[in-house]
Amino acid sequence: MISAPRPLLLVALVLAGGVSVLLALTTGEVEVGLKELERLVLGRGDESLSAIILELRLPRAVAAFVSGGLLATAGALMQVLLRNPLADPYILGISGGAAVGALGAITLGAAAFWIDAMAFAGALTAMLVVFGLAHGDGSWTQTRLLLTGVIVAAGCGAAVSMMLALASDTRVMPMLFWMMGDASAAARPWPAVVVLVLALLAVMPFARDLNVLARGELTARALGVRVQRLRIVLYVLASLLTATAVTLVGSVGFVGLIVPHLVRLVLGNDQRVLIPAAALVGGTLLTLADTAARTMLAPQQLPVGVLTAMIGVPVFLFLLSRSPRSST
Amino acid sequence: MNAARRLPVDAAPLLEAERLALQVGERWLCCEFSLSLAAGECLVLLGPNGAGKTTLLHTLAGLREPTVGQVRLGGLPYAAWPALEAARYRGLLAQQQPDPFAAGVLETVLVGRHPHLGRWGWESAEDVAIARRTLAEVGLAGFEQRAVHTLSGGERQRVAIAALLTQAPRLFLLDEPLNHLDLHHQIATLELFQRLVREPGTGRGSVMVLHDINLAARYADHIILLDGRGGVIAGDRDAVLRADLLGQAFGHPLRRIEHEGRVVFLPD
Fold this sequence. Notes:
The structure holds two protein chains of two kinds.
Chain A: H1 7-26, H2 34-41, H3 47-81, H4 94-107, H5 112-135, H6 142-166, H7 169-180, H8 190-203, H9 207-213, H10 217-222, H11 227-249, H12 255-267, H13 271-295, H14 304-327
Helix pairs in contact in A: 1-3, 1-13, 3-8, 3-11, 3-12, 3-13, 4-5, 4-6, 4-7, 4-11, 5-6, 5-11, 8-11, 12-13, 12-14, 13-14
Chain B: H1 2-5, E1 15-24, E2 27-37, E3 42-46, H2 53-60, E4 68-73, E5 76-77, H3 83-89, E6 90-93, H4 105-110, H5 125-137, H6 153-167, E7 171-175, H7 183-198, E8 205-209, H8 213-219, E9 222-226, E10 232-236, H9 237-240, H10 243-250, E11 254-259, E12 262-267
């Protein structure tokens, strides 16, 4: 059917997101019921329980949810920008730059704050380098952007491998966990929430322009879309979203690639629906994955990236296998 | 924004090119020439491969700066047109239709409504009705829910034509509109655009790149013939469609034959 607004569906996705966060708050080594949770939130619960739920689980759940939202939104934007269904938030080297920064900081034995700061600085550096090189001769084609990004990412990958090879045994584990994605250390998720909300507010007025852009640059310009400006805005936004997510939880794979496709398979490719839906589905998926990551083999913690793949792959394959029938 | 209030200028020709010359790299595609297209007229661009027909069409669409001279749409240079305003006045059928993501036919055609909707606007039932009507006009009624990537090349081309008709511009700029179309649909498409352009009171016109000289002879009012070496012959159909001029431009001798009141050109 044509892509009319589907408020009910968005409400359902918001509810699913809420449920995933509740689940993250209540499950774990210490189980709490909804009644207990309500008392804790109102500040009338047990103090040690309150510390576990509100100071450990809540920031972690919010971090997971917002990172999933950031990555899925960034992935959706990158796929439109590069008009390539295989694009993900990391394809242009943003996560590579962040990894170089973060691993560099870990190598130097820096505190958590500096690891975050260096990761963000690395991501922004990669973004500016790719932009500068791809934009250098005034042209700004998808192929040039994609190639520049992939090459910068490869360079970062080499630097990361070198740091891993030279790192002492005690530093290798935190490095690997950073790279596979880990929400356990994310103590300050709230600025990322602001970034996600602001980015969505910035991009939604242009969502129909993105639909037009999918018809090709020439057609989009003839239809009155200011393509050049739109693409620069898209690039900067997608990069900032990715940088924020990577700084918060490390480079969690898979969410940014698969969630936009998942939403596209079910709801179609109207960006006005796809972008907010991807943000919600991405958040829900990563929250569930993170909850599973810390409870499945407790007290052993698994990297959340492994869980996103374990949940996402079967869901995606199932939807893919039934999509030809539903889309024709 | 002041310009927006003065648009469209009804008395002005739909499209004018004044002393236009185009250069790509070191190569001149066409020397200075002028043209004017009035409502109700069809202009055909002819020329060998690589002569610059598409580049010229894009320049006429305001998507490329002319090297020399000026293009005016409805009496005003493109710089004076807000982009969305221009998109309601002239529409372009691009030579290629990329579709990296799966999309439905109706959804693809509705993209043409973009310049008619506000920033937060959503396609209304009326827009959907327009899209369905244009699909019927190109012979694709009943294809609304099909996925574009399941269509044949010719059907996709007609989806693109329907998207242009949904845009509802006054000036149609068509880059090889007959690509992938079978004989029946080639004629049907040219008849459709001729009917739209000739419809009185609508102020419509068309510019199209064609490869078939005989279809050009049948549907064009004016012809621009690019010879691929920078030479341009622009004028009324019968002044340009001469066997010697066409032969020189295409690098192959042609014979002009009149048959039952119709002119055809056959390659020797």
